[in-house]
Amino acid sequence: MEIEAGQTTFEDLGLSEPVLQAVRDLGFEKPTPIQAKTIPLVLDGRDVIGASQTGTGKTAAFGLPTFTKLGQHGKFRCLVLEPTRELAAQVEEQFNLYGKHLDLKIALLHGGVGYKKQLDQLKAGVDVVIATPGRLLDHFQRKALHFRDIQFLILDEVDRMLDMGFLPDVRRIVSQCKKKRQTLFFSATMPGAIETFAKWALDNPEEISIGRRASVAETVTHGFFPVAYEQRDDLLLALLKKTDYHSVMIFTRTKAEANSITALLNKEGGFKVTPMHSDIPQKDRTKALKGFREGTFDVIVATDLAARGLDISNVTHVINYRVPENAEDYVHRIGRTGRAEQEGDAFTLLAGDEVDHALAIERYIGQKVERKKLEGFDYIYTAMLDDEAPTGDALSRRLGTLKRRRSFGRRRR
Ligand code: AMP
Fold first, then answer.
1. What's the pLDDT band for 54 if we cut at 50, 70, 90?
2. Which end of the chain is more exposed for a tag (fewer CB within 10 A), N or C?
């Protein structure tokens, strides 16, 4: 079946009536391209490899047809593996909405929380499990569940699972499932190790790629803001003050940096800010995400833990306080904005020690990122501000300005 994305409606795709009703309740008007391509294939019983950016509607692409095929309550037949607790929780949230008019039982199994509720759910009988690999294997070893009846195995964000060292666990889980099953495999990037793994896990899969694998969503305007290292905090504050944002994610390289930016914004006042990284206890992370979605917070300061896949809608702006060291992370981070075809802006502060990372990003995405200057900001001179290094008079004027400013200015660090 050849589907033209953009003209297709959800009604054309072969989804069951209870699932279509849930789609209508969610207010989804038309399938996104990945949904238009994936849903018919899944309904047709095919294995699928999807290379797709975050925010493309991937969760519904695998969830809606799987729910159509699962129908009503029965055995544990569908397993979704996710690399992080947040992603797992987010998929569960979406799945509960897709399954609103069905009688399916869905369990979320991840670490960092007690076993009792999870064991009670498993005992009561589930159809769908969404899990992180470690806790799932714990339950398996305790014989709280088995994988013999799995018909739908969904491996999501596989490149992230590889990065986090989960692939051996995932392999163990996959090898416990019966051969006769449908496997859906999603990964934003496809390094060699992932291709080998996919060949082993999938049976004659159909490959779906939405856009270039390393591309930035077209709805995001992004730019580099060259700045002297010691002016980064000032520029960050100035950008926040000058920008008409609804919600911002600020990405830092380290947890300590996330904490210090949070403290800086709290001290400055006027921001509803929360940090988000792996030292924050799980219950506080959940609270932070919920608060961010509901508007209790409008600024979240996060490390990469929060960068991939988190479904936070209405993020109008992303600010990279540091240029990501890994070019893929740039795409993932700024993928927080411009999701599901909304417009978004992404600013990346670029200090002198980060030029190589910036060039690596440009090579990776295959385009030059515009260098931008914030109007009215009192820049101290850095060679970063020039396309070409200044010489002669221009240089001495600038150095003179720099010396004067340094002797007066209150500069952090
Ligand atoms: P995902 O890529 O699965 O993380 O989805 C990103 C966001 O897009 C989520 O907030 C979904 O609820 C939303 N979404 C998914 N499919 C559609 C659609 N067909 N129309 C509008 N929004 C959608």
1. low
2. C
Ligand 1 centroid to Cα of residue 12, in Å, is: 18
Q: Residue 96: is its pLDDT beyond 80? A: yes
In the structure, what pLDDT confidence band is assigned to residue 309 with cuts at 50, 70 and 90? low
DSSP string across 121-135:
HHHH--SEEEE-HHH
Query: Quick one: pLDDT band at residue 294, thresholds 50, 70, 90?
Result: confident
Label residue 270 left, alpha or beta by phi (over 0 means left) and psi (-120 to 50 means alpha).
left
Choose one of 7, 9, 19, 28 to mutate for the ligand 1 pocket test, by most ligand atoms within 8 angstroms of C-beta. Answer: 28
The Cα–Cα gap between 245 and 317 comes to 7
Residue 263: the pLDDT is 97
Q: Which atom of ligand 1 is nearest to the CA of 54?
A: 2
Please state the CATH superfamily assignment of the domain spanning residues 220-380 in this structure: P-loop containing nucleotide triphosphate hydrolases (3.40.50.300)
Choosing from 3, 13, 30, 32 the residue with most ligand 1 atoms within 8 A of its CB, the one to mutate for a pocket test is 32
- Residue closest via CA to ligand 1's atom 4 equals 55
Q: What does residue 204 show for φ and ψ, rounded to 5 degrees?
A: 45, 55
Q: Report pLDDT for 57.
A: 86
Which CATH topology does 10-210 take? Rossmann fold (3.40.50)
- Kindly state if the Cβ of 3 falls inside 6 Å of ligand 1: no
pLDDT value at 24 more than 80: yes
Task: Give nearest CA residue, ligand 1 atom 12.
Answer: 57
Residue 54 Cα to ligand 1 middle (Å): 10
Rounded (5°) CA angle 166-167-168: 95
CA atoms within 13 A on the CB side of 306: 30
Ligand 1, closest atom to CA 10? 19
* Distances in whole angstroms, Cα of residue 38 to Cα of each of 130, 213, 371: 20, 17, 38
Among all chains, which residue has been given the structure tokens 């037949």? 77
- The pTM of this model reads 0.63
Binding site membership of 196 for ligand 1 (Cβ less than 6 Å) = no
Range with the poorest average pLDDT among 16-20, 170-174, 190-194, 304-308: 304-308
Specify the ligand 1 atom closest to the Cα of 94: 12
Q: Which atom of ligand 1 is nearest to the CA of 311?
A: 4
The 3-state DSSP class for residue 41 equals: helix
